[in-house]
Write a structure and sequence with these properties.
The complex is a heterodimer of chains A (about 625) and B (about 375). Chain A has about 625 residues and is α/β, with parallel strands linked by helices. Chain A is built from 22 helices and 23 strands. The radius of gyration of chain A is 27 Å and the shape is globular. The chains are: A alpha/beta (about 625), B alpha+beta (about 375).
Chain lengths: ~625, ~375
Amino acid sequence: MNPILHQSGKIELLMGNEAIARGALEAGVQVCAAYPGNPSSEIITTLAAVAVERGIHVEWSVNEKVALEVVAGASFAGLRGLCTMKQNGMNVACDFLLNLNLTGCGGGLVVLVADDPGALSSTNEEDSRLFAKLAGLPLLEPATIQETKEMTRWAFELSEKLSLPVLIRSATRISHARSNVRLGELPQENRKPFWEISQTRVTFPVVKNHQRLSDKQFQAAENFETSPFNLYRGPEKPEFLIITCGSGWLYALEAVVSLDLAHRVGILKMGTTWPLPAAWLLDHLSKAEQILFVEEVDPFLENNIKAFFAQHCATLGIKRFFGKADRSLPETGELNPDIVTKTIQRLLNVPYQTRPTEYADRARETVEQWVPGRDIGFCAGCPHRATYWAIKNALALDGRKGILLGDIGCYSLGMGASGFFQMKTLHAMGSGAGLACGVGQLGRFGLDQPVLTVCGDSTFYHAVMPALANARYNGANFLLLLLDNSGTAMTGFQPHPGTGKKANGEPAPILDLKSICRALGAEVEEADPFQLTETTETILRLLQDNNGPRVLILRRECALIRGKQQKKLFQMTIDQGRCLGDQCGCNRLCTRVYKCPGLVWDPTSGKAQIDEAICTGCGVCAEICPASAIGKEAS
Amino acid sequence: MNEGQKGLEEKVLSKDMCAACGACLGLCPYLKSRQGKVIKLDDCDLTTGRCYAYCPRSQVDWEGLQTKLFGPVYEAIEMGTSRKIVMARATDPVWKGKVQTGGVVSALIDFALRKGMIQKAVLTQREEDLLPYGKIVSQREDVFSCSGSSYISGPTLEALNQGPWKGEERIGVVGLPCQILALAKMKGSNLPTQTPIDRVVLTLGLFCTWALAYKPFKAFLDARFDHRPIRKLDITPPPERLLKVWIGDKVEEISLDEIRAFIRPACQVCPDMTAEFADLSVGTVEGMADWNTLVVRTQRGEELLEQAVAAGLIETRSLTKENLGHLREASLLKKQRALTALKEEGNPDGGYLNLSKELREKIQS
């Protein structure tokens, strides 16, 4: 049995995202939808794996707005629904969310957003909590894995009580951390959906509904007054108070313990961060005169509590606040225990060395000695590397300084060395083609640089289709390179409408990329990125056209998907006698420029070698070797 | 100073000093040519490289090369070392109407191939779009296909660098002065990784006053002639000096003033009208459309000519004193113009041309 379905009372080691999934299952969730995005993806993956067994519907939707609508549909018919996304996804979903807040929901509706402080796998590090305030929706922030499960379960109840969607904000260190979790009861029966036909879900009359939403916020705040997710730990009269939430709670706790300040410093841990529970907060704010806010990304609690303080300053008296506003803590990037500890140590003027210098040096030396020096870049055998090679050469040969507008996916790495620095923009899903709609109009003003854009297969369904329709309609000139690697690779190979598979593994109709592009009026060609010369020529030829949008579908399965399913395409060898190494005539083209991690430079012999453990046998390097020293044999 | 790709970029490519000879191409994966232009695909960080070493516009030790290839002391400052200068034409009727002017180049290459003096020849071919490229030939019909000029320079030497070459194959190359100079630089180079230059046993140079850059010239012709395919181009000798264009069944004429803008800047600083490093250099003869001028420079060149004459394939006549005078004058004038152009660009000492002060003064006096 999948451990996520183990019986009540058992203790399981769960990842934060699995705990969210379990919490939703315990709440009786029946419809779950999402578009993949780190660090949120594993929630739906986990639920999809048990969807058949639990008799629930779990889907990968084409984008976050659709996902939220899917779940809202279920909620309107009385079922409980969970919609998950990363912080960028909230931007896509928010148009619907900021109307859904006015109509309210039926069955419990939970929107879980996993933020990415430090932008470890994101294009930005926005703080999605601001949407809770913007939409006037209750917001919960779990601080431990156990709490993550409990909070998720409770969020459905709260949602039904208020008839409002409830937001949960997770973050990388919650979603991707693991801890023991005591499991609760799973419901035995599913609800039967019914749409109460007398109930309309329209935002009109807007002002009346807006007022109702405002009233519900007061109701929500009242619910939070006694919430077990809010707690205080510390002396009755602390000289210093830390207000924190999410992963900041454990950082603060660790700092206070390691600085031996438990008798002087109190920690106010908040699990319900919007709207603020007024009475509870007033009580605790009165405890200390110095207050530090510890929270990931934006000063959300900090600003809201300061505003709350302004409202109540007559009662509370003078306070001194520390946080991001006064730069006691960094305003950007991810927090960690060291940062928090150093800040507290500085503010309270207590001595503590977070990590002995000697230990730090030893750790660094060990890392330098044993970790292979690799740049961030495409995997060995990745078709994107070959694609960017062809793009680079085509643009150089074309000579008109073509502009490649980028998009979101593994191929975003095209901005760096492994994509030969070809990609020049990076914003939101589908923005490459959207920008191309603009830049592709500038020919009339004399822009004589060709315009190109890239997008992946999953991104195409998510947000590129409208841009392509726009391009055809308005006559924008550009070449769209559609990199079809048969999956949503960067987030973990989730299926999409082009893969013929649903989230739960059931077969699905394939929405053919070529047919869609043709139907949208674009000229479409296909090429194999591993055929470098032909692909380069095709790109070069398509760049010469000037008739609206053109699409080149570059089709090759992700090397990791391929690696899971079949053996190497080729067995690669390097003829050490032929290899020119760093001599004139080659100068390490394969290891210095092409830089596939499967190729390694051996400085002792002055020759390139194949790293058997890493090489996936794609065979592309045999084509680039100027000395024909790299051989490939069908394996 | 960087004498690798970076140096080539700084001194030649970025300054539009590239003659598109092809000497730097086919040697490595970093340089390619497209539409008459050398393009860098990736940076190469070597500080010495063949691309720089062989380039006829990087650094040229003119007198040193002359001494190395033709013996001591460079005295024939107008048009280089020569054993004899004659006029000649192909007599074999197979060449009639198929070749430019006297047909001597085609006839000599064909003869050298058939006599086994060379097994392969590197010539220049043009497709319908006029873009020249190097072609390796061994048969007469292929020599036919490469005859005629388009006045556009192209990367002929890329074919030489690329090969493939087998066994003991010996090669003859027909090239413009810049290409012949590049071959001389290859011969004189002592870089460890060599080109097939050791196989090159015969070089035939073509007289050249300038060549045109492909892209703008092609765009001009396309606009003028509505993209119709061009069969042949010819520039009539002075004083007429017209560009004749064979298009369909018509011959159109264009004044040279109209195309001067397309002359490669690299040609303005070229001192070499008569391919001074060739075994044998071939040009037109003023006022005699069916004859070629021949400057025989080496023993090998002389032997080839003598054998071809003996075989009855070429006839020669002596060049009139007047013609010879005009030729010397024109050749010297090209040298003077090159030095003036270099001076105007801020190189009073001859820039890339490492000429001794003495020689510079001699040329300019």
